[in-house]
Write a structure and sequence with these properties.
Blueprint (H helix, E strand, L loop, with lengths): L1 E5 L12 H9 L4 E4 L9 H9 L4 E8 L5 H15 L4 E6 L3 H6 L8 H17 L6 E2 L4 E2 L24 E6 L2 H10 L2 E4 L6 H14 L12 E10 L3 H6 L2 H10 L7 H8 L3 H12 L3 H6 L3 H6 L1 E4 L1 H7 L10 E4 L4 H14 L4
Parallel strand pairs: 1-2, 1-11, 2-3, 3-4, 4-7, 7-8, 8-9, 9-10, 9-11
Antiparallel strand pairs: 5-6
Helix pairs in contact: 1-15, 2-3, 3-5, 5-6, 6-7, 9-11, 10-11
């Protein structure tokens, strides 16, 4: 089992990078550290900084939003960060975000999330492979650009910088088509919601993708599936659960439109469809406190490890479900980092 460290810095009003926690994670054998972005702090700049203060730990985005940059620009970021880090350390996790951010913040068309990701990964692969000048005729993205406003002078180009061979591309998704796409074209998958029955729900979609995976892709046996692991050492379990409800309510209720909310859909897939709909209904009606109250204790508790060290040790095996190759720890507390590294090592060994 591999361990990652998730840095929840993207939703803060000020950038406070927990460098000490990242260094501690590297000392404890963690595989990777992960950043994210919404509409404030970007996911890539912190990784460039962390490249300078670490030596081995992989640097990943979970996720970088595809509407924020062209695929060529994201590939350039990946190559630059990887060069700064010494090579073979960068993982670009891609996600589509939601239409409110895509069209409202980035000013890009929502289009087809599936073809955004399919074209995006294909172009990034061509940039990173650096075999021929990049051309792509996709459903969502074309290079060179020949659409409205083009003057017809676009030229297919090849990266000046020679990238390392180890840059990886992962996909974050929850819906069937993009989950299958991850297994078809990516090096790993970051699921939006993956409970004890995660493989029963998502396994068939992954298998569809594996069946048409290219022969020159990373073998299925090396494909990575990382889930989130929220941990808090505490004697007050209820308080630990309660303080996570506002963020859950915001995502399930308001991170997206009424028609398109992947977080609501994820909660529903995990066995809480009525609660997910109620949370969104209350949030969109302006009743944020009511939305928070509608978040089930069980949903929060099943998604993390809360309590004294003994309870965390006892419940940890419940988080190791079929198909999972790694877990991203959602805590930067130094004692928690050490505890989870010890528990994982005792249970299954650190990958």
């Amino acid at each position: 089992m591999k361990l990652g460290l998730g840095l929840d810095i993207y939703n803060k009003s000020q950038l406070l990078l927990p460098t000490e926690a990242v260094i501690q994670a590297e000392k404890n054998g963690f595989h990777s550290v992960w950043t994210a972005e919404a509409y404030g702090i970007d996911a890539l700049s912190p990784l460039a900084y962390l490249a300078a203060v670490t030596k081995r730990i992989k640097l990943g985005t979970a996720v970088v939003q595809v509407a924020a940059r062209t695929p060529a620009a994201t590939a350039m970021h990946a190559m630059t960060i990887d060069a700064l880090a010494g090579g073979n350390r960068t993982i670009i996790g891609l996600g589509v975000s939601g239409p409110q951010i895509v069209e409202g913040w980035y000013g890009r068309p929502w289009g087809s999330p599936h073809y955004w990701l399919r074209d995006y990964v294909a172009i990034m692969r061509k940039v990173l492979e650096r075999q021929i000048p990049v051309e792509h005729k996709g459903r969502q993205i074309q290079l060179p650009f020949e659409g409205e406003g083009a003057i017809g002078q676009g030229k297919a180009l090849k990266s000046i910088l020679h990238p390392s061979d180890g840059i990886q591309i992962w996909i974050a998704s929850g819906a069937p088509m993009n989950t299958a796409l991850a297994a078809e074209v990516a090096d790993g998958w970051l699921p939006m919601g993956y409970g004890p029955d995660g493989w029963e729900i998502h396994g068939p979609n992954l298998e569809k993708g594996f069946q048409i995976r290219a022969d020159d892709a990373v073998p299925k046996s090396e494909f990575q599936l990382f889930t989130n692991l929220t941990v808090e050492i505490t004697d007050d379990i209820q308080a630990a659960i309660d303080k996570r409800k506002p963020m859950t309510a915001m995502y399930v209720g308001g991170m997206g439109s009424k028609e398109h909310n992947f977080h609501r859909d994820s909660m529903a897939r995990r066995g809480f469809p009525e609660q997910a709909n109620l949370i969104q209904e209350r949030w969109l009606a302006g009743d944020k406190e009511g939305a928070v109250r509608a978040v089930p204790d069980e949903y929060i508790d099943m998604g993390g490890l809360f309590g004294p060290e003994e309870r965390i040790r006892e419940r940890y095996p419940l988080t190791v479900t079929q198909g999972v190759t790694g877990q991203i720890l959602r805590s930067t507390d130094l004692a928690t980092i050490e505890l989870i590294a010890e528990i994982v090592s005792d249970h299954s060994g650190l990958g």
